[in-house]
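User: For my dataset I need records formatted as: sequence, then structure tokens, nothing else. Please produce one.
Assistant:
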Amino acid sequence: MPTPGQLQSGASLLAGILVGWIIAFGWSHRTSSPVPDSVPPAGDAVRARIALVEPQAPRAPGQDSGPWGDLEVRSVWLEPPVEDIPSSTCDTRPPAWYVRGQTRASLPALLTALGVPKDLGPALAGVAEFYDEGVVISPPAEVVIALPSDVRARLYTLLEPERMNGFIRFGFRAGARDFEERLATAGLSPATVSLFQRLAYRDGPMVRVADIALLCARAASDTDRLRIVMTLARTRSLIASLVLQRGADVAALGRYWTVGAGPSEAASMLEAVGRVGGKVDIEHLLPPLGRDRLNRFPDGTGTALECFWTSLNFAALEPDDSLALPGVGGPVLDARYAAVADIRYDMTRDIGQAEALRGLRFGDLLALEDDTNLISHLVVHIAGDIVFTKNGTGVWNPWVLTRFQDVVETYPRTTHAQVLRLRE
């Protein structure tokens, strides 16, 4: 039976194993920290495998048209290259639960209050190990599987704040439609799909799965374990093409697709295509960082990269890797960008979404904030409701284009978004 100290070490190890699907909530870069004399380089990016191209979704007339031109948009699923996934990633060691402040006398009442079925409570109490600061429970696999979804949600909500319960904090989460589409298209065995669904629980609009080690332990083969990892690592992205009619006003389009003071390569490309008409993948209209990183995963070397590094380097000719360090990005954001709008419509529903974003410029930043104005995420506005983002620090969090509403659902504490624009 692990002690609380061993659980702490185990949580750190789990965080390393599951770093690919870490989604961080509620951090702030608006504090300054000393910058070391040398910063590890960011490392390269590797091209994702496109696992599935979805049919073009119907959109309202003109929804993907505006000063940026007319876009054709398709949704795709990305997977990391198989050779980049170590066999140890699908860890089969079951985590223990740490419950602070509980005693031998109080634990049964807590389990009852959480709604744990009467036939399961004694099995959990029977494997509990009590310490001065709380209790460690190593639950039998069959008990974990048998927990009703609503009980699992209440129990894991109670356990999640403790650092020793990192398997919950670093577990998997996705929107309900996203979750079902993953299971339907991932090639998992029927038994694994059934267990996925059994272990899932709702957290507001999100579906979460924390017991990944149990999934891996019950997998029938190494192939199925690999498919579990690929299912968790899958990320939806967009492929968007700008449709140019012959004789289109490419000068106006070129101005839209220019960000910062540097020369724009987009203008010359649009002029060339506009002479004859055709389509341009907007990957080619992005600044160097966007072109080099879109639909790619980090290669796992160098500094861990996240949304501040991505967003603040978007308009740069060469990325500044110090922006990936804690406390560095906030002061740079405040110095380079000015707030020009605050979007406060219902962030949990797709109401007025495209209309609220239509007035933004290419390269504007959207800072997702909670009701305390703490930044939880930063994305780059591209066109309409399409943004460029890296959702998390992990090596399995690629750089993608996505709808802004999908980002908001990934960061459910968001109450509003500040629109930030490069200072002139």
